[in-house]
Automatic annotation (TrEMBL):
The keyword Hydrolase applies. Its EC number is 3.1.1.81. GO terms for molecular function: acyl-L-homoserine-lactone lactonohydrolase activity. Pfam families: Lactamase_B. This is N-acyl homoserine lactone hydrolase. The keyword Metal-binding applies. Keywords: Hydrolase, Metal-binding, Zinc.
Length: 284
C-alpha cells in the first residue's frame, strides 16, 4: 500500500450553522458554531490541500452575513453558548483567520499557496471554496468531481444557498476533474460521496504510523451523523434521489472506515477537530 508522509489539520475559521442543515431532521432554530476545516498532506508528489475555507471577502460581506442570518432578528445570535476555543464574535455568523485565511493557515507551517502541488475541493459551497482565487493566482491545480463542476455550471447553484459562482468561474483556474475514486498521490485518494451536493467528495489518507484517515467534509458535518447514522441535513439538488445518494454516501463512509479501521472525521465538528489537532510535526 502506498502511503503519504505527514498530515496537518487546519482551521480557517468558523460559521453559525443550524442543526437542521447538518443533520437530516434536525432543528433549524438550533445553531452551532461549526469549524471551517482543511487538511494538508505531504506526499512524494508534493503538498496536497483538501478544502480552503471561506474567503476574506465573504467573511466581511454583508450579503453573506444576510444569508447566514436568514429570518433571525438583528443583534446577538441565539443558540447554545460557545464553550470551545477559539472564541468567535457574538454578533456575526462567521469569523475567519486574519488577512487571506488560506495564506494565514499555511504561514505557521512555513508554507505559501505556491508551495502546494494540488488542491482538492470537496464541493462548491463557499465555506469550502474561499481559497480558489488565491490558488488560481499561485497557479495551483484545483481538483473537483466532474459532477460538481457541472452542477456549478448548471445555473442551479444559487447564492442564497451558499454557492458563489464568482469564486469558481475564474478563467485562469487550472481545473482537474475526476469521475470516480482516484488516488491523486501516493497514499491520498479522492472518494466520491455525493448527496450533500451532486459531486461531493471525501478524502482518504494512508499514513505509516497512524493508518487510515477519512475526511468526510460535508457528507457528515458532525460526529452525531456517524453515531446515529443520520445523513447530512441539506441536499443541494433537492430531490429524493439526492437524499438517497446522501444516505448511500454515509453508508459507504461507515463501511469503509470499519473495513480499514480508519479514523473517520466529520467536516464541521469543533469537538472532533480540537481532539485531532496535529502535533507540531504533523500526524505521521
Ligand atoms: Zn456544504
Amino acid at each position: 500500500m502506498q502511503r503519504a508522509g505527514r498530515l496537518f489539520v487546519l482551521q480557517y475559521g468558523a460559521e453559525r450553522v443550524s442543526k437542521g442543515l447538518s443533520l437530516r431532521g434536525g432543528d433549524h432554530g438550533h445553531l452551532y458554531w461549526e469549524p471551517l476545516t482543511g487538511v494538508l498532506v505531504e506526499t512524494t508528489a508534493g503538498w496536497i490541500i483538501f478544502d480552503t475555507g471561506m474567503s476574506r471577502r465573504h467573511h466581511d460581506s454583508a450579503a453573506v452575513e444576510q444569508v447566514y442570518r436568514g429570518d433571525l432578528p438583528p443583534g446577538p445570535l441565539p443558540g447554545p453558548p460557545w464553550h470551545l476555543p477559539p472564541a468567535p464574535p457574538a454578533d456575526r455568523s462567521t469569523w475567519g483567520l486574519p488577512g487571506d485565511p488560506l495564506v494565514s493557515v499555511l504561514q505557521p507551517l512555513g508554507l505559501t499557496p505556491a508551495d502546494l502541488s494540488l488542491a482538492v475541493i470537496s464541493h462548491l459551497h463557499w465555506d469550502h471554496t474561499g481559497g480558489i482565487e488565491t490558488l488560481t493566482g499561485a497557479g495551483v491545480e484545483v481538483l473537483l468531481h466532474a459532477d460538481e463542476l457541472a452542477w456549478g455550471r448548471s445555473g442551479r447553484a444559487r447564492f442564497e444557498e451558499g454557492f458563489d459562482a464568482a469564486e469558481w468561474s475564474l478563467p485562469a483556474t487550472r481545473w482537474r476533474t475526476v469521475d470516480a475514486e482516484t488516488e491523486v498521490a501516493p497514499g491520498v485518494t479522492v472518494l466520491p460521496t455525493p448527496g450533500h451536493t451532486p459531486g461531493h467528495v471525501s478524502l482518504q489518507v494512508e499514513l505509516a504510523g497512524t493508518g487510515t484517515w477519512i475526511f468526510a467534509a460535508d457528507a457528515t458535518d458532525l460526529a452525531q451523523n456517524l453515531l446515529d447514522a443520520v445523513p447530512c441535513g441539506s441536499c443541494a439538488g433537492g430531490t429524493a434521489a439526492d437524499e438517497e445518494q446522501a444516505s448511500a454516501s454515509l453508508d459507504l463512509l461507515l463501511a469503509r472506515a470499519r473495513a480499514s479501521h480508519a479514523r473517520l472525521v466529520p467536516g464541521h465538528d469543533q469537538v472532533v477537530w480540537n481532539a485531532i489537532r496535529h502535533p507540531p510535526g504533523g500526524h505521521r
